[in-house]
Amino acid sequence: MTSSERRRTRSGRRPLVLVLPAVCALAFLLVPLLGLLLRTPWWALPDRLFNAEVGQALRLSLLCASLATVICLVLGVPLAWLLARGEVPGRGLIRALVTVPLVLPPVVGGVALLLVLGRRGLIGRYLYEWSGFALPFTTAGVVIAEAFVAMPFLVIAVEGALRAADPRFEEAAATLGASRWLTFRRVTLPSVLPGVVAGGVLCWARALGEFGATITFAGNFPGKTTTMPLAVYLALEHDPDDAIVLSLVLLAVSVAVLVALRERWIRGAV
């Protein structure tokens, strides 16, 4: 008996009481996306995609999401290593705190950033007095807000990859006299590179779609802080077709991320 036949034998006849809710759930998730595709003005898509407002929001979103991802990689990979390999007290509490932005409403995250990094914030006041520069309502503020919301995705992915990696290679490198930094750079990091890439892609996609923390901390100034999600919100009021086009771009990015990570999901399901 083949494996597929064994699976069919174990599953037996699918109960209707489970199939119907499952189909309804699938329709609930897919029908709105199908509606977006059906309402997209495909004939005018090139013109609308490259008009001044849409193009400006698209370029700003790509730039800010990419810079936020770089920040997350520089800071998040060492944090993931600390959680997976470092012997630090309260590691479980640190891990819980790292994941707070995942469940925290983004608007609350924006308020928290404003209270800390704003012109009168706990840290922002000293930054403003020293340099005359204030982060809120600037493009740099968009990058900070996106990095704050997106970093946990990277940390969780990289920490999982580090925990799954075989530590014997690192022990062998240490036995041969390699320093901790050299071991991390030449042994640990290459072994978890797929996890870093997957976490970076998820981080970038999350930063690209961020709305709540961005509008709260950085505001909504065209050409300066208006990213694609904010542009969708504005376009709904005066030009729904532009909102549909921007939504389609964000949908395409989300699908591309899923396609890029398909092997990771498949391996996890096996």
Q: What features would you describe in this structure?
A:
The protein is mostly helical. The protein contains 16 helices and no strands. The model has no long low-confidence stretch (mean pLDDT about 85).
Name its key features.
mainly alpha, 270 residues, 16 helices, 0% strand
**Helical percentage:** over 70%
Largest sheet: none
SSE topology string: HHHHHHHHHHHHHHHH
State mean pLDDT (0 to 100 scale).
Answer: 83
Dominant shape: globular
The total strand number stands at 0
Which spans of ≥5 residues are poorly predicted at pLDDT below 50?
A: none
Structural class: mainly alpha
Radius of gyration over all CA atoms, rounded:
23 Å
Brief characterization of the structure:
This protein has 270 residues and is mostly helical.
Write the layout of secondary structure elements.
Layout: H1 3-11, H2 16-39, H3 45-49, H4 52-85, H5 91-98, H6 100-103, H7 106-117, H8 124-131, H9 139-164, H10 168-175, H11 180-191, H12 193-208, H13 212-217, H14 228-238, H15 240-260, H16 262-269
Helix pairs in contact: 2-15, 4-9, 4-12, 9-12, 10-11, 12-15, 14-15
